[in-house]
Amino acid sequence: MSDELKLSKELVDNVMNVVMAVDGRAKDPFVGSQYLAAIVGYIVGTSSIPSQEKKEIMDELSSFMHHVYQDVSQPQSAPVAPPGSAFGIWKPGDS
What we know:
Strand content: under 5%
Oligomer: single chain
Order of helices and strands: HHH
Distance between the termini: 50 Å
């Protein structure tokens, strides 16, 4: 089993639709993000693990959240063909 998360636009849209069904103001990305942050805080805060471990988890999640933010906010560059490869459309009769 892979340890990778399966984050997708579809998953994010589905989660946000649930949040917006509860509070229409969550259509605003800032309000929606506040709900998600509050949910994470609630889950970690109500877990039955030691307080110091909770703080470490929150610090790790904060760092992870910032990493995801950086990944998705950078413009996606067009794929570059490897050196020596060709690109174009060939039609019969072209030489």
